[in-house]
Specification:
4 copies of one chain form a homotetramer.
Chain A (H helix, E strand, L loop, with lengths): L3 E2 L4 E5 L6 E7 L9 H11 L17 E4 L1 E2 L2 E2 L4 E6 L21 H7 L17 H16 L4 E9 L2 E2 L10 H8 L10 H14 L6 E8 L13 H9 L5 E6 L10 H4 L3 E4 L2 E4 L7 E2 L2 E2 L4 E7 L9 E5 L4 E5 L10 H20 L4
Antiparallel strand pairs in A: 1-2, 2-3, 3-7, 4-7, 5-6, 8-9, 8-10, 10-16, 11-16, 12-13, 14-15, 17-18
Helix pairs in contact in A: 1-3, 1-8, 3-8, 6-8
Chain lengths: 360, 360, 360, 360
C-alpha cells in the first residue's frame, strides 16, 4: 500500500529500476482538459540525467507512452496510465548487494522487509529513477493548476554550504517562476552556480557526494484550502515530499528558525492591500491552522548526500553474517539536488491538486 | 475529512474549545488488551495546563469518560470513544475575533474556509485543547506498543536559543525514557531547565511568547516496518505531527544538517553487534528508504511561538474591510513547548501503531 | 477499521448496546448550513422501538446530545459528534451468550474475532441499537441533500409473503415521499398494513420472527454522479446498506428479475421530455455504468428474520466444547422491517452525499 | 477515484477499450511468493471471447505483459503492473454514439459526467474488456489465497429461465471447484448446458440478448474475518462485485428468499463436527454480523442482458436534442454470463484477500 498518493487525484507509481518498465496511473483527472505534452516532456527532461557534467553518465530513455486516459491531447476522465519502457540497463553491477547492503541505501531495510525477494538491481522500486513517473504525473497536475492561476517553482536553495538566495515569500514574480521552471540548475541568484558546481566537483574528486536543500513556492492559491489537523496543508505536502527518495526534513515558512523567535517577530500581521487581505511578512509559509491564507506557500526540503559513493565503506555480509567492506563501482551522481528540483515541484503539484480537488 | 488519522488504527478527533465536549473515536484496536487507565491519566496530566508557573491559569478538566470500546479495563475490539466534557469555560473573551483575526492564529483562514460559521470561541476546533484527546488516544496506543517492546520518549530540545542535549540516537536507555515519560518539563540535561524557564519568563515579561523544538525517539522497533514512497515512515510520522497545532518543521536523524554533509559522513555504516545488524552512527534517524532499520527512530519538530501575545498587533477588520489593531486580553501560555512534549509522543504512538498494524 | 463510512463525508459510529453511550462523529459537513433538529428527532423516533404493538417493549432513550460541530442550529464545519447516553439497560439476560452463541446472531463470529473480549451484552457493537446514530447522521445528511432537491424515501416492500406495491420508478411524487418519511409503518398501499401486521403477529404467536424487504428511492439527483467500476453508485450504496444489521441482499432497478429478461425488455429507451433526457422505463434503477442517469435511483434490500426467537434452538457450548440447546428469554421484536425503513433511508442519504460531495 | 479497489491489496485498473493498452497495478502483494503464470493465463482464457460459438467474434489478444513487481516467477513486493496492449481494434463502428447513446449502456451517463470528452470507442473505460485486467489481478490473488487453503469457484446459476443446480452451501467438494475453475461454461449440473445454449441462441436469432445469474462460493476461510458494520464481508464483496459491468443485484446465502422465511427456518443451528463448530444449514452464506463463520461464503449476482442488441431501439440525439432511433451494427455477444463467471471469481479473490490481509 505504499506507492499510491492522493484521495481526490490518486496516483499509483509502479516499476523497478531495471525491470521492464516504470510508470504511473493517475485516477480522478477532469475530463476535457487539454494537456500540452511538450511541456510535460520539458519537465521530464529537467529531471533526466546526463544534462550536464555534474550528472550521471547512465543514459535513460524517459519518454513516457500514454496507454489510456487521453484521446489526442485531451483527458478522457478515465485513469491515465503512462509507461516508460526500460532500455539500455546493465544489471551486472548489483549482484552482491543482496549480501552486502550499501550504507545509506534501502538495501538492508528492503532485504528485511521483502525477505530478500525484492529486485535489488539499481535499487529496484526505491530507485531515484521512480521519480520520472512522479515528474510526469506532476507535469499533468501542474498544467491543470496553472489554468486556475496556481504556479509552482522550486530552486536549489543550497548545495553543501553554498547557498542561493531565498524566495521573498510575500511576493514571487511570474518571471522568476518561469525562469526556474525551465532550468535544469534552477537558482534565484545565478551567481551561486559556480560555487555550487565547484562543491559538487569537489565531492566527486573526493570520491564523495554532497547534499543540499530545495526551496519550493506555490503562488496564486486562494485562502481557505486545506483542513485542520491531519489534512492540513503542511501534513499533506510533507507526506508527498517525504515520498521522494533522500528527503530527510521539511519546514514551512521560517520553519526551524521560528523555534528561536518571539511571537511578536513570528506573527505575520494582516493588512488590506487593494481590497485583499495580505500579510506583512510570511513567516508561516502561507499556512495557518493547516489552511492556506492566500499568501504563497513556501517550504524547504533537506536532501541527504547521495549514498552511493566510490569510497570503500563498512557494511555487513548478510549471508556470512559478518562485518564486511564494500566498494561501489560505476559512476554515480555526486549530487542529486539539481535534479530533485523538478521532482519537488512535481510532487508538490500532486499534493496541491489533492488539497484543492479537481473542481473549480 | 480533516480530523481523522490512520488506516489500521483510525482515530477521529472531535470537539471545539468551548463547545459541549471534545473527544476521540479510536477504531481498530485489538480486543482483549488490558489498558492501565492510570497511566493514561498521567499522560493527560503532563499535557494539562496549570502544572507550574509557566502554564496557563485557565483551569481545564481533562478527565476523559470512556463511552464504548472497553469493558472494565479491557478493550472490546469495538470503536473506543472517550469524551472530555467542557466545563468552566468563559466565552466572552472571543467576541470580536470573527471581525479581527489574531495574527498567527487560524482565525482568518477559518473565517474564509467556513464562511464565518466556525466556532471561534477559544479557537474552536483549532484550539490546542484538541490535543487532549490526541494524548488520550496516544496513551492507549503506546501501551499496546510497549507490550511489543516499543517505547517513545520526547524532550524539550530547545526553547528559544536555550538547548537541551540531543538523544544519542544509537543508544537510548530505558531509564531515560522512563524519566522523560513522567516529566512535565522533560529534559535530558536538567541543567537546561533554569535557563529555559528564564527564557519563557523573559518572554512573558515582554508580553511576548517564545517557540522551541521537541526531539522524539522511538526505540525497540524492529527493522522492516514502513513502506517505500508515500507510506514511508518519515511521511506517516510527518503527517501525524503536522496535525499538532503550531508545528512548522520536522527533520529525521540529522535532518537539515545532512544537507551540508558529505556522503562519507552521513552514511551510517553497518556492523554486527551480537548477531544483530546495527549502524555505527544513526544520521538517518532509523529510517532508510522509508523503512525502519532497527535503530531508534529519531526526529525533531519545530514549534512556533504561541501566537497569542499581549502586545498590540496589526490586523484587519473583516467586517469594516479596513486595517485595524488588536489587543488580546486574558493570560496566555507564553511557551507551549513543555506541554507539546507529551502531545508529540502521543501522536507518534498513533503514527507508529499505524505503521506496524495491530497484529503481532 | 470497521465502523467508518465515506470519503467526502466520513461517519464514524461507536458504542455498544449496553455500554455508557453510543454515537457518531460526522466529519466533512459544510459549515454554515442550518439543521432542523426537530426533523432529526422525527427520523430517530421512526426507528425507536415501542412505537406500536409490533415493536419491542424495551424502552430506549434515543435523544442525541450534540457535543461539537454545531453552534445553535448551524453547522460549524468541525466534526459533529452526537452521543446517545445509555440508560435503563438490563444486562443480566446476556450472561450465557459467551458460552452458547445464538444462531443467526454475531455471537459466535464475534467470539472468534475478538477472542471473547467483546461486549456481548445486547449484542454489543453489533446491536441494532447502533442504527440509532446512523439514523441521526442520515437525518443530518438528508437535510443537506434536500436543499439540493434530492429526496429519499423507503417503504416496507414486503413482510414475509405480504407485499406492498412497488414504486413507479419513472415517477415518484413528492407527496408520496413526504407520507413515507413521516410514517413508522411506511407503505405505498396502506391496505397492506393489516395483512403485514397479521403476519408479524402470527410469527410472534409462533414464538418466531419474520423477514421482509425494503424498497428505497432517491429522487432529484442529476445525471452524471458516481464513477465507473468500484465507485459506481450501486457499489457505494451496497457497501453502506450492508452495514445495516440483517441485510442479506440488494438489487437495483429490476435487479434479479433482469437476469430472466431479454435485452429488448430490459434496456430503458431514452426520450426527450420537455428538454430533459428521460427513460421510458427505469429497469436499471437510475444507474448506468455506475453513474446516475437522472432518473430515480431505486433499489430493494432483503432483511432476514430477526434471529432472536423464543423457540428452543440448537447451538454449541463453546466452553464445554459440546452441542447445546438455547432458549432466549425476554421479549424480542418479531419483525424489524418497519423500523429498518428509516435506517435504510438514513444510510442511503449518507451514501448519496458521499457520491455527490458536499459542494454544490 | 473510481477504478481502484482495496485497502490492503490495492488494485488500480486502467485503460479504454480501443486505446493503446489496458492493465492493472496491484500494490501490497507479499514479496517472495511464487506465481504460476500459466494458471493466470488459464483464467484469462476463460474470460476471453471467441472460445465457442456463443461468444463474440471480435478477436482480442489478452496476453498480459508484466512490467514490474515480479522477478522471474516471484513477487518482489513492489507494485505489480501488467499491461495488455490493444491490437486489432476497429473503431469505425462507434462514431455516432456520442450523439445517440445506446440504451442500457453508459454512453449517456458518461457523456454527461465527462462532458463528451470520454473515449466512447468500444465503451471506453466502461467496456467489458476492462474485466481482463481484473481477471489477471484476481488470478494472482487467488494463487496467494490457495496457499492459505482458500478456494473460489463460481458457476452459471441461470441464463434466462434455465437454472443450474445451486451449491450445497454446507459442503463444496474440491473436485467441483477444480472442475468449475477450468471450465469456460461452468456448470454444476452439465445437463443444463444444452438448454442454456439454446436460450442464448434463441436470443441471438431474435436479434436480442439474455441475462442470467452467477453463483460464487469461497471455501476454506476461517471464522473471524471481516468487520462489523461497513467493512462487513457482504459489503466488501458487494462493492467489488458491483464494479463488474452489468451486475445489478447481489444476495448472500438465501438472500432475498430469507425475507419470506421465519427465523426458525433461517437461523443456522450450530453444532460441533469433529471439534470444529459448523452450522447445520448455511442460509447466512457463511457470514454473521459481517464476519465469516467458517462455513463457505456463498452469494449470487444478477447480470442484466447484454445491452447491445441488433434490434432498432429508441434513443435521443444529444446534438440535435431530439428523439432518435438507433441500430447497433456489428456482432455482439448475446449473453455474457459464461464469461462473467471467471470475472466474478477474480473480483471475489480480490475482495477476499483484502478482507484477510496479506499476512498469514
Amino acid at each position: 500500500m505504499s506507492s499510491t498518493f492522493g484521495e481526490k487525484i490518486k496516483i499509483s507509481v509502479f516499476g523497478e529500476s531495471h525491470g521492464n518498465g516504470i510508470g504511473v496511473v493517475i485516477d480522478g483527472l477532469t475530463a476535457g482538459e487539454k494537456i500540452d505534452m511538450d511541456k510535460v516532456l520539458v519537465q521530464m527532461a529537467r529531471r533526466a540525467p546526463g544534462k550536464d557534467k555534474t550528472a550521471t553518465p547512465r543514459k535513460e530513455s524517459d519518454l513516457p507512452r500514454v496507454l489510456s486516459g487521453m484521446l489526442g491531447d485531451t483527458l478522457t476522465g478515465a485513469p491515465l496510465c503512462a509507461v516508460i519502457e526500460n532500455t539500455n540497463t546493465k544489471s551486472g553491477d548489483y549482484s552482491n548487494l543482496l549480501s552486502c547492503p550499501r550504507p545509506g541505501h534501502s538495501d538492508y531495510t528492503a532485504f528485511i522487509k521483502y525477505n530478500a525477494a525484492n529486485d535489488i538491481r539499481g535499487g529496484g522500486h526505491f530507485s531515484g529513477r521512480l521519480t520520472a513517473p512522479i515528474v510526469f504525473a506532476g507535469a499533468i497536475c501542474r498544467q491543470l493548476l496553472e489554468k486556475r492561476g496556481i504556479k509552482i517553482a522550486a530552486h536549489i536553495s543550497s548545495i553543501g554550504s553554498v547557498m542561493d538566495k531565498d524566495f521573498d515569500p510575500t511576493s514571487i514574480p511570474d518571471e522568476l517562476i518561469e525562469k526556474l521552471n525551465g532550468s535544469s540548475f534552477a537558482l534565484i541568484d545565478d551567481f551561486a552556480e559556480e560555487a555550487m558546481r565547484a562543491e559538487v566537483e569537489d565531492a566527486r574528486m573526493s570520491l564523495d557526494s554532497v547534499g543540499g536543500t530545495v526551496e519550493c513556492a506555490v503562488t496564486g492559491i486562494e485562502p481557505g484550502f486545506g483542513d485542520p489537523m491531519f489534512d492540513g496543508v503542511e501534513g499533506v505536502i510533507a507526506k508527498a515530499v517525504f515520498g521522494v527518495p533522500a528527503i530527510k526534513g521539511i519546514e514551512f515558512g521560517k520553519g526551524f528558525e521560528l523555534s528561536k523567535m518571539r511571537g511578536s517577530q513570528s506573527n505575520d500581521s494582516f493588512r488590506y492591500d487593494g481590497g485583499r487581505v495580505v500579510t506583512e511578512t510570511n513567516n508561516c509559509g502561507g499556512i495557518l491552522g493547516g489552511i492556506t491564507n492566500g499568501m504563497p506557500i513556501v517550504f524547504k526540503a533537506a536532501i541527504k548526500p547521495t549514498p552511493s559513493i566510490s569510497q570503500k565503506q563498512k557494511t555487513v555480509d548478510l549471508q556470512k553474517r559478518e562485518n564486511a567492506e564494500l566498494e561501489i563501482h560505476g559512476r554515480h551522481d555526486p549530487c542529486i539536488v539539481p535534479r530533485a528540483v523538478p521532482v519537488i515541484e512535481a510532487i508538490t503539484a500532486i499534493a496541491i491538486i489533492n488539497i484543492l480537488g479537481n473542481t473549480e
